[in-house]
Design goal:
Helix content: 25-40%
Number of domains: 1
Largest sheet: 4 strands, antiparallel
Strand order of the largest sheet: 1-2-3-5
Strand content: 5-15%
Distance between the termini: 60 Å
Number of strands: 6
Radius of gyration: 18 Å
Number of helices: 6
Order of helices and strands: EEEHEHEHHHHE
Amino acid sequence: MSVRTDKPPVVPLQSAAGPENPPCPACSNPLFPWVAEPWREAEAVLRCEVCGLGVARTGGSPEEAEAAAEAAAADGAPNRASLAAWLGSGAWAGLEPSRRYLLTPASIERLRPQAPEPPRPAMSVALMWQTLQNSFTFGRNLALGRSERVEPTPSSKKWQRRLDWAIVVLTALPLLLVAVLLEVPAALAGRGGALRPR
């Protein structure tokens, strides 16, 4: 009996490039569907397999992505490579209607010469907490949206909005404890929820 030693062929990522998989603005590799935008179900958020950059809505340019990285240097940004983004997926607090580029440390290193700083603990915990709450509510980012730290997306129905606020109030403290317990090891592993480039 003979043992086969030939390896399967390696298919480069570039072979998947096309209209459905446009190039990443940070590293030019193809973008692939990640999650559907919760406020626009027909449109997917794309993500890069190499640098992790997420792009909400098709198209985009390196210049726009660089501008987003520069804005993050001043204001900070959610980290798409975070544990919160992985756990939350479509409920992740970093998915905001006006945020087109979802940055990661690797994508920022490609867009700007400076490497990102370590995550900001308070904002990282807040994003994890909001992501956990988003998993239980019809709307998105309601609690942090009141503080204007992220952009809220309330539910369209009045009864859902009322129920959402009851859920926010009742789950606030328990989910804050869970958020801290999840975010501390995530930050130590380099997967914190927020980042700010130097």
